[in-house]
Amino acid sequence: MSPDDVVEEVKKSGLRGRGGAGFPTGMKWSFLAKPEGVPRHLIVNADESEPGTFKDRYLMEHIPHLLIEGIIVASYALGSNTSFIYIRGEYAWIVDILEQAIQEARNNGFLGKNILNSGFDCDIHVQRGAGAYICGEETALLESLEGKRGNPRIKPPFPAVKGAWDRPTVVNNVESISAVVPIINLGGEEYAKIGVGKSTGTKLISACGNINKPGVYEIDMTISVEEFIYSDEYCGGIPNGKRLKACIPGGSSVPILPANLLLKTAKGEQRMMNYESLSDGGFQTGSMMGSGGFIVFDEDQCIVKHTYTLARFYRHESCGQCSPCREGTGWMEKLLWRLENGQGKMSDIDLLWEIQSKIEGNTICPLGDAAAWPVAAAIRHFRDEFEWHVTHAEEAQVRNFGLAHYADPIQPIPA
């Protein structure tokens, strides 16, 4: 196969980026500029830092050769002779696993000069980050890779034209690149037959929270959310017969959904575990597949408390480059602390709503949106819970979260 043939097969497969945005991978590859005499690069984004998301860790830890093979094939398609894996600092032990797998590939002639007499040269280098969430954003990742502070760049120019060291660069997630291997083995059209609609292939979901069987699951995207939560094949239901209250279906940055909108859409249709169904209804009644970080909350969980926890995270991880994000995330954290600890006022809820709306869409990179969306969705769907923290200040301070005051949870599904 020629490099262009590989790109065409990935296009036919319909593979969507598994890092969160869901942009078609083959189309992203076709945007890569190819100026004469200028090196190009493939960079694998392994800076998996979103709370609740740990699927890439599983891939790299348990089947690193799948990722290495995917990098070699993708590098051939893109004309990258030097490719990189940029991995988060906390995954220190996985660096050793990847380095060993890369060396084994070199020893067997799958990396280096003139791979298998193909005339193609390629090598892979692992670069460890310092553990900053912002470096999962592709342009901040490029800055960090170049040895600079991991601040996002203004786009355009896009990395496909001016990326690492001003050279054309493609940045893809670990799961996306690992999917290239089955696509080439099966053929793009056969791969596209797995799944449904524009949600082709399989998807890794890292499931956690109040479920009996937390872990990483590979799913066919034709299953329902209800089956994923309650079947023994996947999450195994909610411990101790508790009722389902809410779920963040795609990593901490995507909107939380109350149980009634999680299992069925606003139109009353069964909610499915795929890109289209999870986003049905937009942010008013839907959410996103995101990075596949599936966080389940049972009836005992306090949405205000969890929203405060997420706000603390995004305030800490903001790089501070944009004023709306730098100032706004700090104010959201302060207001949520007051509400969580029974010191809030009704006007604080409206102020919180106004602040998140000033952050969304007004920052260089998506971290501002990632900080704003959880707050907006929590107020949209659980405003009564925020108000309860104001009207029952003493109970809130001693953590006596009476369930009767909260949004209506879903009864357990009969066995």
From TrEMBL:
Belongs to the complex I 51 kDa subunit family. The keyword Flavoprotein applies. Keywords: 4Fe-4S, Flavoprotein, FMN, Iron, Iron-sulfur, Metal-binding. PANTHER family: NADH DEHYDROGENASE [UBIQUINONE] FLAVOPROTEIN 1, MITOCHONDRIAL, NADH-UBIQUINONE OXIDOREDUCTASE FLAVOPROTEIN 1 NDUFV1. NCBIfam families: PRK13596.1. Residues 304-349 form the NADH-ubiquinone oxidoreductase 51kDa subunit iron-sulphur binding domain. InterPro entries: ComplexI_51kDa_subunit (IPR050837), NADH-UbQ_OxRdtase_51kDa_CS (IPR001949), Nuo51_FMN-bd (IPR011538), Nuo51_FMN-bd_sf (IPR037225), Nuop51_4Fe4S-bd (IPR019575), Nuop51_4Fe4S-bd_sf (IPR037207). It holds the Pfam family NADH_4Fe-4S. This is NADH-quinone oxidoreductase subunit 1. It comes from the Bacteria. Its cofactor is FMN; [4Fe-4S] cluster.
